[in-house]
Amino acid sequence: MALENPEVEQQKRKQGIRIAFLAVLLAVVFVISVCVGTYSVSPADLVSVLAGDIDAVSGSVWTLLTEVRLPRVILCAFIGAALSIAGGAYQGLFQNPMCSQDVLGASSGASFGAALAILIGLSGAGVSSFAFAFGLIAVAIATGVSQISKTNRILALILSGMVVSSLFSSGVSAVKLVADTEEVLPAITYWLMGSLTSIRSSDVLPTIILLVAASLPIYILRWRINLLATGEDEAKSMGINTTAVRLVVICCATFLTATCVSVSGLIGWVGLVIPHFCRLFVGNDYRRVIPASILMGASFLLIVDDLARTLTVSEIPIGILTSFVGAPVFLLLIKKGGATNGSRG
């Protein structure tokens, strides 16, 4: 049995340590996120609630943690992880480091669906359902339009996504134009800025099931994304069914994006910035980029949500803060590493 190069072994060990560090960081950020807010609680209270010891905490603390704080923090972590997975998968799939989770128009479609639902008087589950459905419809249209091209399918998909995004963005503008300016327009505008304030405890389990179900295929296929990131011809020469892999990854990444947007509204930059950080941190191998994206994306969105809840008296929409943080950080990444390539190399 051939021995592995010592340098390669050392590199793998370093990457493993870095991923372990991200896991510890996420655990620390999670605890802090649960404890901070308008009404702060102690880590001891959190432990008591998680242990089910209702007599160890006051009724108000129990209600705060079980009905408000824990559902929000848990879903925030899952949404951050899911958006990062989707963005990273698209960057590898399309060999383009500038791709994000909205490259095929899922977020724009979901925004139109939500705006339309609010316009016709729906709320809560109705808005989420419309957002989810139109997110899927947008990507289905982009994928269908891309089939017109018989040559460069990847470029055709990206261009189709841009067209569909523009189309649904125009639809959102049209809905806002005819919306009632007293109540409906402010509701649409607030939803489009992204927020986790409407999350309920009943949302947690169904959303987690959907996100985990869509994430698992991408996680399992992450080594195949490695091959696709090097080029379609190389992947085919290794016996990879590139069409099937691409279809599965696109469907799962779309499902992730549509689910996240339907729950939280628009949250930008996460799927673009986090995979870049992860490639700088653990290298270009998607077997490590995807796990790192899960951990770093969850931590990032938790930190941003903490800021949204604590910086001012009234909560700041989280989508505003991700843009404020993401844009300058991405510029720094470009300056430092030239926007690390989405392919392995």
UniProtKB/TrEMBL annotation:
Main localization is membrane
Stretches that traverse the bilayer: 19-40, 73-94, 114-142, 154-178, 208-225, 245-274, 286-304, 316-334
Report whether Transmembrane helix shows up as a keyword of the record. yes
> Which BP terms does GO give this entry?
siderophore-iron import into cell
Question: Which compartment or compartments is the protein found in?
Answer: Cell membrane
Q: What's the superkingdom here?
A: Bacteria
Q: How does it sit in the membrane?
A: Multi-pass membrane protein
User: Which InterPro entries does its entry note?
Assistant: ABC_BtuC-like, ABC_transptr_permease_BtuC
GO terms for CC? plasma membrane
Q: Which UniProt keywords apply?
A: Cell membrane, Membrane, Transmembrane, Transmembrane helix, Transport
Question: Which terms does the record give in the GO molecular function aspect?
Answer: transmembrane transporter activity
Q: Which family does it belong to?
A: Belongs to the binding-protein-dependent transport system permease family. FecCD subfamily.
The protein's name is Iron ABC transporter permease
Taxonomy of origin reads:
Bacteria, Bacillati, Actinomycetota, Coriobacteriia, Eggerthellales
